[in-house]
Amino acid sequence: MAKKPKQIAIYGKGGIGKSTTTSNISAALSVAGYKVMQIGCDPKSDSTVTLRGGEYIPTILDTLREKKNAKAEDLIFQGFNGVYCVEAGGPAPGVGCAGRGIITAVELLKQQRIFELLDLDFVIYDVLGDVVCGGFAVPVREGIAEHVFTVSSSDFMAIYAANNLFTGIKKYSNNGGALLGGVIANSINAPYARHIIDDFVARTNTQVVEYVPRSITVTQAELQGKTTIEAFPDSEQAAVYKTLAARIAAHTESKVPEPLDVHELRRWAAGWSDQIVAVETGEVRSTGQSI
Ligand code: ADP
Ligand code: MG
């Protein structure tokens, strides 16, 4: 009997680095010998671009508009090192629900028993996390993904989006929804950024899975239309992504997060305003101010 793949959803604010991080995780897992599928669930439909040498693949919604009985080979494309790439797609701009693509994609892959047929080890959903729409909640709500990770920098808007996601996860956790594996802290270079993220995860009952620095290596790889794992496999940044991928592969215990309410979050953020200067000028302070 075919094994069940481990299904993971990666959420986060638009532009925060979800697709970059997810593609590097997929690439690193494939290099480690796993069979991986990455499903882009963002109407931008560019999740898998760097796994495909900079090339965009047709989306499930677009293909279905033209061909009602589309088969797996019309929807699934192989990229770097055999990673299976899927883009759910979005509605025409201004029309319909942006989450439709996800619902359609998930149903179709399920119907055709694709995960079993391809004998996948991992299915990773790359999901836009700052849109409040039922479709985007599907991987969490329906318990399709077992574990959710969120990409966040130390910027307030990214943390705000992560905190909203935590609220959604907590809400669906009583009905078999996915639980939270942790935060992938992206673009963490300055000491203050690490302090802020560490304090946020401590307060919301979660953890940082890995700190990923902002790196010119990522930019160079992206300009080549590649992941860092493919373009610069021996770089320090590739080592960070490999560690991150190994942690996600080994991860088993996800938890219900404890989001802050909006007022708490605001007060918490305001408390950091002076402290980030203190951290940067060396008057280091541990992460424990009260809210
Ligand atoms: P999202 O999928 O969340 O919308 P992307 O993964 O497309 O975001 O990233 C947005 C931009 O930020 C891209 O140009 C990407 O190369 C860049 N980026 C993300 N993470 C890093 C990083 N750690 N170092 C350098 N650039 C990064
Ligand atoms: Mg993206």
Structural account:
By secondary structure, the chain is an alpha/beta fold. The protein has a single domain, classed as 3-Layer(aba) Sandwich (Rossmann fold). It has 12 helices and 8 strands. The chain has an 8-stranded mixed β-sheet with strand order 3-4-2-5-1-6-7-8, with helices on both faces. Helix 1 crosses helix 11 (about 235-250), helix 4 (about 100-110) packs across helix 6 (about 135-140) and helix 8 (about 190-205) runs antiparallel to helix 12 (about 260-280). The relative contact order is 0.17. The model has no long low-confidence stretch (mean pLDDT about 90). The structure holds adenosine-5'-diphosphate and magnesium ion.
Element layout with pairings:
Elements: E1 6-12, H1 18-31, E2 36-41, H2 60-66, H3 72-75, E3 77-78, E4 84-87, H4 100-111, H5 114-117, E5 122-128, H6 134-141, E6 147-152, H7 156-172, E7 179-186, H8 191-203, E8 208-212, H9 216-223, H10 228-231, H11 236-250, H12 262-280
Parallel strand pairs: 1-5, 1-6, 2-4, 2-5, 6-7, 7-8
Antiparallel strand pairs: 3-4
Helix pairs in contact: 1-11, 4-6, 8-12
Bound molecules: adenosine-5'-diphosphate and magnesium ion.
Magnesium ion is lined by residues 18-19, 42, 44, 46-47.
